Amino acid sequence: MPIELSTDLPQPLVPLAWLIGRWEGAGVVGYPTIEEANFGQEVEFSHDGRPFLSYTSRTWLLDAEGAKVRPLATETGFWRVPGQPGAAEGGGTEVEFLLAHPTGFVEIYVGTVNGPRIDLITDLVARTATAKEYTSAKRMYGLVESDLLWVLDMAAMGQPLQSHASARLKRTS
Ligand code: HEM
């Protein structure tokens, strides 16, 4: 008998269902220590029937005409729902987001999904001996007019927590 693989959405993931799929769009990156730039981004959230989402993001520097110049930040990780959907304060759902970066960081975010909005803060950041000084971050993801908007504030290079990147993405599947 072949093993039947279920790809039904596990019940704990229902509050995150709106993320699932592929997204593509553009954003802006900046920080007091770097030059502002425009980037393109492709993001995928997927699941295989188990109660977590897999996540990947790739970005590219864009020139003034919007053409890809070279790869920028890429990150990959997993979204988990540790508790009962709707059990967090205000009827939200607790989420955990584990993330790895080729720039020498791994991080764990904790936060809440409330309808079309997710708020996250870093609970833990670790970095390799050669990575830049990055200590904490805050992220927000939101579904706005069917687009995925996200913003990232970070504390790094001796600077207080402040905006580093944001983007607006359209669903491609
Ligand atoms: C879409 C997301 C992101 C984009 C497009 C992006 C892009 C950039 C660019 C272009 C720079 C300046 C040049 C360079 O060092 O490569 C930079 C610097 C930096 N980024 Fe990001 N980044 C993103 C996300 C992140 C995340 C998630 C973190 C932390 C985990 C991070 C941490 C840093 C740090 C620490 C610097 C160094 C700043 C400095 O050297 O003064 N970035 N980023």
TrEMBL record:
Residues 13-171 form the THAP4-like heme-binding domain. Pfam families: THAP4_heme-bd. Transmembrane segments: none annotated. SUPFAM superfamilies: Lipocalins. It comes from the Bacteria. Belongs to the nitrobindin family. This is Peroxynitrite isomerase.
